[in-house]
Structures are given as structure tokens and as C-alpha cells.
Amino acid sequence: MKGNEKLIDTLNSLLEGELTAINQYIVHAEMCEDWGYGKLSGSFKTRAITEMKHAEKLIERILFLEGTPIVSNLSDINIGKEVPEQIKNDHSLEVDTVKDYNEAIVLAGEVLDYATRDILMEILKDEDQHVDELEELQDQMDQMSLQIFLSTQN
């Protein structure tokens, strides 16, 4: 089924964001693992896996719409040198992602591609959850102090 070119371009842009997030989360996960924060590393890895599933859904949809998935583009990857900076960078990435998905959902509706819109809405729910999880970690750091927070991440 030949899809709308603007929507396919938008899906490729979302794919770029997902691939960027995967890389950023994996690096943060491995850094935390190296520092002995296994619990925090696990949460980053889990988020990376979710982003991989999103990328897969986007690739499948682009192909269905007879587009070409572009997997060679990445946005800037912002690696934090310390845990608070990692969480801040990841939060910023997710907030931008939520905005991008909301705009893509509107576009899918405008071009009357409701199946794509439904897929994007499903992914958006996960992205909203990622924002919530990262805000939860930021709140915990603020309430506990960084040292106590990090001591709970072994």
C-alpha cells in the first residue's frame, strides 16, 4: 500500500529518534553497570529494549507503506558523565520524543492513515511512561540526596 510521502518521512524521523535513544540508553546502562549500579543499569537496558521494539514497529510500517526505512541517521547522542546528567539527558530526549509522536499522530489523522495513527498512539503510551519513570528517578534523587539514591541502585 503506497503511503503518504510526508508521513513516511515523519516515520523515518521518528525512527531516527528511536535509534538515537537505543544508543544513548545502552551507553548509560553500561556506564552504570561499570560503576556498580546494577538496578539503574537494568532500567536503562529495559528502556533500550522498548525503544528497539518501537524501531521495529516503525520499520515494519514504513515498509508496509512502501517506503524505505532509513537506519543510518542518528541525532546527537548526549552521554552524561554522571548519573544525574544521564537521567536529565534521557528525560530531555523523551520529552522531545513525546512531542514528535504527538505531531506525527496529528499528521497521520490528517492524511487519513488511522492504522499508522493507532501504532503511533501505542508507542506514545510507552514514551509517556518513560518520561514518568525518569521524573520519578529525578524526584528520588532530589528527595533522598544523590548519595543515598545511588546506594539503592546496587
TrEMBL record:
GO molecular function: ferroxidase activity
Ferritin-like diiron domain span: 1-145
Catalytic activity: Fe(2+)(in) = Fe(2+)(out); 4 Fe(2+) + O2 + 4 H(+) = 4 Fe(3+) + 2 H2O
Coiled coil: 120-147
UniProt KW keywords: Coiled coil, Heme, Iron, Iron storage, Metal-binding, Oxidoreductase
Gene3D superfamilies: 1.20.1260.10
InterPro entries linked: Bacterioferritin (IPR002024), Ferritin-like (IPR012347), Ferritin-like_diiron (IPR009040), Ferritin-like_SF (IPR009078), Ferritin_DPS_dom (IPR008331)
Cofactor(s) required, per the database record: heme b
Entry EC no(s): 1.16.3.1
Oligomeric form and interacting partners: Homooligomer of 24 subunits, arranged as 12 dimers, that are packed together to form an approximately spherical molecule with a central cavity, in which large amounts of iron can be deposited.
Function: Iron-storage protein, whose ferroxidase center binds Fe(2+), oxidizes it using dioxygen to Fe(3+), and participates in the subsequent Fe(3+) oxide mineral core formation within the central cavity of the BFR protein shell.
Family per similarity comment: Belongs to the bacterioferritin family.
NCBIfam families reported in the protein's UniProt record: bfr
Protein name, UniProt field: Bacterioferritin
Lineage: Bacteria, Bacillati, Actinomycetota, Coriobacteriia, Eggerthellales
Gene name, Swiss-Prot/TrEMBL: bfr
